[in-house]
Amino acid sequence: MRVLVTGGAGFIGSHVTKILLDQGHKVVVLDNLSSSKKETVDSRAELIVGDIKDPKSSRAALKGADAVIHMAGLIIVPESVKDPIKYCENNVIGTVSFLESMRKEKVKKIIFSSSACVYGNPQNLPIKEDAPVNPDNPYGASKASIEAFLQSYHAVFGFDVAILRYFNPYGPGEMHNPETHAIPNFIKATLAKKPIPLYWKGEQIRDFIYIEDLAQAHADVLNLSGFEIFNIGCEKGIKVKDVVDEIFKIAGYKVPIDDLGKRAGDVSANFASSEKLKKAVGWKAKVGLREGLTKTIEFYRSI
Questions:
Q1: Distance of alpha carbon 297 from alpha carbon 200, whole angstroms
Q2: What is the rounded CA–CA span in Å between residue 297 and residue 183?
Q3: Residue 265 pLDDT
Q4: pLDDT at 181
Q5: CB-side exposure of 158: number of CA atoms within 13 Å?
Q6: By the 8 A CB rule, do 272 and 116 touch?
Q7: CB atoms within 10 A of CB 2
Q8: What is the CA angle 258-264-269, rounded to 5?
Q9: Is the Cβ–Cβ distance between 86 and 241 less than 8 Å?
């Protein structure tokens, strides 16, 4: 299969690209390199430097594609709170522009990189896919809006859509600048023997999913048709402060905590039920937190 991966130079996209190539697919990456580097793209893939909002580069990248894995977009929750218009213009309008390019090139299969942020503060745990969509920050609202457009493109234009709602990905290769995600910031602070930045005293509960498990899910759903929504998580909630303690155990020492208090846009607890995806394609998370953190710490030690 010939697969176009938008945002394929990013942290998750580069892992997805590698798995697809390893499985024998042909991969084209479309990325504007605004927050990533071309060196992260597997040399076996074709890289087109361009933006999803630009029909010319989008349509060029889509030529001959059988499917799209759409990962391009802005991802920083606090930034979205400060600048909602930016997230609407880039994520939502940019995606609709890209969907129009897909329609014109007659490419009608898409796997979309969504987020557990669409749920907001959940009413029940673990979260199932039929839980209410109630985003409580603009980043989550942008993902929910894109999901609604994908539903309409399925209904009106016959697109095959698989929406993957990520919980909290982590692992080797995460090099955002600035870095806003918890685990890489915890690890980098620990290795530098500096205070760890911690919101809510680490009492919030999250579902941390290792990057290779997450990436595998994209390949697993490639052959599905219709309109499907799946959660991608380990199905285990863990307090953020317990992740910090696990990092200390692996590192062999502790560092001080920098208590940053509360943060707008955060939810107190979320973790996934991924039973639906298991039943559909047999996917399950294989890498436990201790193993995943060990591999991630090794990566940051090596750079």
A1: 24
A2: 10
A3: 65
A4: 82
A5: 3
A6: yes
A7: 15
A8: 80
A9: no
pLDDT, tens digit, for every residue of 49-105? 999 999 999 999 999 999 999 999 999 888 999 999 999 999 999 999 999 999 999
**What angle, rounded to 10 degrees, do the helices at 11-22 and 211-220 form?**
50
Global model pTM greater than 0.85: yes
Nearest to 218 by CA among 42, 22, 17, 45: 17
| Interval 275-301: pLDDT, tens | 999 999 999 999 999 999 999 999 999
Query: What is the rounded CA–CA span in Å between residue 13 and residue 7?
Result: 6
CA dihedral for 222, 111, 71, 116, sign (positive or negative): negative
Bridge partners of 272, per DSSP, are 127
Task: Give the residue numbers marked as catalytic.
Answer: 139
Structure-token match 């760890």, residue found: 196
Backbone angles phi, psi at 113, to 5 degrees: -85, 95
